[in-house]
Specification:
heterodimer; A: 4 helices; globular; B: 2 strands
Chain lengths: ~210, ~475
């Protein structure tokens, strides 16, 4: 068996579409914004300033983004839960991703699970990932997670904070970021233009999760 | 699936006769005893298939070429592996279903050290002679072997469909269908009542929520795809997204009861479980499919479909049954040279003792994890619903996906001094009593001293330490 094949994910789309976005942080920033529990992915944060960049906001990327944390629940850039690779590896409640290994019932509720080891799949949830079982088979895991967040978590947050809008706000607050991240965090962004494929972790051997190292 | 109205097929003429025989000539005790013994054999038949299929699965490199660069041999490799895994997953389901029936009768299923003792292996109680294969041999001895035309024949030997006229048999059976037919007759006989299937309750059987038909490992791409595209298609042009080309070999309606994995507390449920096993394995009513949506092939036909794309299929000499009708050759044809590109050079029927000295500790660890997984499976019956879900996740999923699967995937690239790639031997290694097995498994991790191996398997050893200790459940 020879190994002189093109590297995974090459060629990458050109030009790099995320030049205007803050650089994906390899480590979850500290301190985090609030005492709210960690969440599984982009746009699933329960309060202002809570996301992977930490309370102080992005530290790398375009100047207009540095030091500016997100403005609202549902706008956060990415997960605050410990990154993990797969089914049953989540540390706590509501920290599982979804889509790759698990049951149809679990795949209905990405980002929602009862406790440690009951989560289904890796976080953060890269936007290329799709659901392999159940009635959402073939559909985006991240979009389903946002829908579940909108239906189950958002009404509770609005009860706590009536100023929150009825609809979920776009990622990053509505500027170009909302458009860039309308399907979730792309692996192209997470992997820094394919330079660091191991900066996200996902499991599986079929090469279809969009993030297989 | 067995008919549009009743998922269980009516008894055949032969089964009617056998059931009548059981009614007239067996005592209730004899019928129960035979059923229990044959169900334990059924568990061991299903168990025997799992290492055989997994060994062949792991010999396939699914990602030699990828995404938009994928070539025909790699597309075939990914398909073959996805299909092999889809079948292995259903064999685990069949083992669980047989074990649930046995447990409902009051007997704990035995799995630990019940895998085949050596390879090539007969299947328990299988007729040692079958139809001639590609080597014109009629022996039914199945090897641990890498993916090849010959190995697919051995898979076909396992899944060979029952002919239209076939007597139920529990010894010297020619098809698994005949064997389960024998069990079906025992269940149908008037000696057995629903109460017999309620000795052990459903709450401690393996629950339906522990099974899912597909995973990221059972699916495969139908064609080249753009790995950067989202399921909704994030940018126009070029190849479609992975989601758009994903093939799902297992279908959600491929079962006879209310779910794929059911618990048993009646004769009816036991018969539904057996219908699921037989239809998934050999197909429904001598056809190639096994599900109401007619979109999932039986195991037999899945294997035959893979063979039909290999160059030797067109002039095959092995004897295939008339029904289901074998497929025409499938293109693009995969040659033996293509296979060399996508298949790891696994040895045939390896043993730890036959491996070079410096790989024996690693092989023992793989075997230890495999046997410990069987102990964990037995232990599930001691963890009632709803706690079972957490136990199953932490025990089975973690040991399967994050220990054994990764151990094999990471170590199969080691080329040993004998020129072969390292491969799991799936032996019945002795971990001591079930109470002591976890401690003894941990001791096996300490024996890995080769630096190059330790570097690769360190993470998996750490995960082994997070597995539940089954010992307290067996005190």
């Amino acid at each position: 068996m020879s190994d002189s094949q093109p590297k995974a994910g090459e060629p990458v789309p050109q030009p790099y579409p995320y030049q205007e976005a803050p650089t994906w942080p390899q480590q979850i920033g500290t301190p985090l914004a609030s005492a709210h529990p960690p969440h599984a992915c982009m746009g699933l944060n329960s309060c202002k300033g809570q996301d992977r960049f930490g309370a102080a906001g992005p530290t790398d990327g375009p100047e207009d983004k540095i030091g500016k944390p997100n403005e609202c629940a549902g706008q956060g850039y990415c997960s605050t839960t410990t990154d993990h690779k797969c089914h049953v590896q989540n540390d706590c409640r509501n920290q599982g991703g979804c889509g790759l290994n698990g049951t149809a019932e679990e795949f209905e509720q990405p980002g929602i699970n009862d406790c440690k080891s009951l989560g289904s799949c890796a976080t953060p949830i890269n936007s290329e990932r799709f659901i392999v079982n159940g009635r959402y088979q073939g559909q985006s895991v991240w979009l389903r997670a946002r829908q579940v967040f909108h239906e189950k978590v958002w009404p509770q947050l609005r009860e706590e904070n009536p100023d929150l809008p009825e609809e979920l706000p776009p990622i990053g607050g509505g500027d170009r970021m909302g458009e860039l991240f309308q399907a979730g965090p792309a692996f192209l962004w997470i992997s820094d233009n394919n330079a660091n494929r191991r900066s996200i972790v996902a499991c599986g051997s079929s090469d279809m999760s969009g993030a297989t190292p | 699936m067995s008919s549009s109205t009743d998922p269980i097929s009516p008894l055949t003429w032969e089964e009617h006769l056998k059931t009548l025989f059981d009614d007239l000539f067996l005592t209730r005790e004899q019928a129960l005893q035979e059923l229990k013994e044959n169900l334990q054999t059924a568990v061991q038949i299903e168990l025997a298939t799992i290492p055989i299929y997994l060994y062949t699965y792991y010999s396939i490199n699914r990602i030699h070429t990828r995404g938009e660069n994928v070539d025909n041999p790699s597309l075939y490799a990914n398909k073959a592996a996805g299909i092999m895994m889809s079948i292995a997953v259903e064999e685990m389901l069949h083992m669980s279903l047989s074990a649930n029936i046995l447990y409902s009768l009051g007997v704990e299923p035995q799995l630990y050290k019940r895998s085949p003792n050596s390879y090539p292996t007969p299947l328990p109680s299988h007729n040692p002679k079958g139809p001639p294969g590609p080597d014109r041999q009629t022996k039914v001895l199945v090897p641990l072997s890498k993916f090849s035309y010959e190995q697919l024949w051995h898979c076909l030997q396992i899944e060979y469909p029952e002919p239209k006229i076939a007597w139920p048999k529990d010894r010297n059976w020619n098809t698994i269908g005949q064997f389960y037919s024998y069990i079906r007759c025992l269940i149908e006989c008037h000696h057995l009542k629903d109460e017999d299937f309620q000795v052990n309750g459903a709450e401690t059987q393996i629950q339906s929520y522990n099974y899912s038909p597909n995973s990221i490992d059972t699916i495969y791409p139908a064609q080249k795809f753009d790995p950067w595209k989202t399921p909704e298609g994030s940018h126009p042009g070029g190849y479609p997204s992975a989601a758009a080309v994903a093939q799902y070999p297992n279908k959600p309606d491929s079962h006879a009861g209310h779910a794929e994995l059911i618990t048993i507390s009646s004769k009816r449920e036991a018969l539904e479980a057996i219908a699921t096993i037989c239809d998934q394995g050999e197909g429904y009513a001598h056809r190639e499919i096994d599900d109401p949506s007619q979109s999932e092939y039986s195991h037999y036909y899945k294997f035959l479909g893979l063979q039909a794309q290999l160059e030797r299929y067109e002039h095959h000499i092995e004897k295939l049954p008339n029904l289901p009708k074998p497929p025409a050759p499938i293109t693009p044809t995969i040659t033996d040279t293509d296979l060399e590109e996508i298949i790891y050079n696994f040895p045939d029927n390896p043993t730890t003792a036959g491996y070079p000295q410096d790989y024996q500790a690693l092989s023992n660890l793989c075997n230890g994890v495999y046997q410990y997984m069987l102990i964990l499976t037995e232990t599930i019956y001691k963890v009632p619903n709803p706690e079972q879900k957490l136990f199953f996740n932490e025990a089975m999923h973690r040991s399967m996906l994050w220990v054994l699967n990764r151990l094999i995937k990471h170590t199969r690239t080691f080329v040993m001094d004998n020129g072969y790639n390292f491969a799991p031997t799936f032996e019945n290694i002795d971990l001591g009593s079930r109470q002591d097995a976890y401690t003894n498994l941990l001791a096996l991790t300490e024996k890995i001293t080769e630096e190059s191996q330790l570097k690769v398997v360190k993470e998996m050893i750490e995960t082994i330490k997070t597995l539940p200790d089954a010992g307290p459940y067996w005190k």
